[in-house]
Amino acid sequence: MQLGMIGLGRMGANMVRRLMKDGHECVVYNRSPAPVKAMEGEGAIGASDLDDFIAKLETPRVVWLMVPAAVVDQNIEALVDKLDEGDIIIDGGNSYYKDDIARAKRLQPKGIHYMDVGTSGGVWGLERGYCLMIGGEDASVAHLDSVFKSLAPGVGDVARSRGLAGESSQAEQGYLHCGSVGAGHFVKMVHNGIEYGLMAAYAEGLNILKHANVGKVSQEVDAETSPLRNPEDFQYDLNLADITEVWRRGSVVA
C-alpha cells in the first residue's frame, strides 16, 4: 500500500523504514530537505514541497502527520485545499483528543476523512514495532489495516492472556481500533499519564536509595532543612546499578 509521511524525525523516519521493509511504498516530506534525501537513499519517494508530495500520492491519498501537536493544525491547513474527497489525514502524534474531534468536523464538509493514531514505541519501534491506539471511522480504519499491521509488533513470543483462544485479535497484534475520532488519542493520553507516573515513581524511589547513606554525611544547618533524626538509620551505601538489575529479574516493578 502507498502512504505519505510528513515529519521525518526519529519516530516518523523509523516508521517509514518499517513500512518499506514490509513492502509498502512511502512518499516522504519534511520541512528541512536533509531527512528527505536520507530516506530517498533508503528507497522512499522524496517530495520537494507539499505540491510535489500530493502529486506523487495515488488517490485516495493517505497522509500521515508525524509532527509536534503544536503544528498539526497548520499542516492540515496547508494540505486541505490540495486534497480531494475520500483522502485520509492521520495524526500520529500526541494531540489532545478534543482537537481531533474538531478537526474531523472541519474536514467533513470537504469529504476528507480524519483519523487519530496514538503511537507508542519510541526509538525501539523500528525493530520491535509500534503499539497503535486508533480513532476513526470504521471504513477508514479497515482501509489502512495492512499499514497498521506492518507497524505493529505482531503477536511475537508474548504469551497469550488467560482465556484467549483461536485467531489472534487486533489487540494481540499490537494495534486497536479504540472507537470514533478522538478515541485513539484519549487512550494514548491515559497511557502517557501512566507512563509519566511510572517514571516519576522510579525517579523518586531511586533518589531515596541514592541518598540512603545521608546519615554518614555532615549536614549544614539552615532555615529550610529539617535536621535529620536518627542518622544511624541511614547508613547504607547502595549500588543502584545492581539494584535495578536485580529488579529486572522477576521483580513486579520491572
Automatic annotation (TrEMBL):
Keywords tagged on the record: Gluconate utilization, Oxidoreductase
Residues annotated as transmembrane: none
Gene Ontology BP term (one): pentose-phosphate shunt
GO terms of molecular function: NADP binding; phosphogluconate dehydrogenase (decarboxylating) activity
PROSITE patterns for the chain: 3_HYDROXYISOBUT_DH
All copies of domain 6-phosphogluconate dehydrogenase C-terminal, residue ranges: 184-212
The protein's enzyme class: oxidoreductase
Family according to the record: Belongs to the 6-phosphogluconate dehydrogenase family.
Protein name: 6-phosphogluconate dehydrogenase, decarboxylating
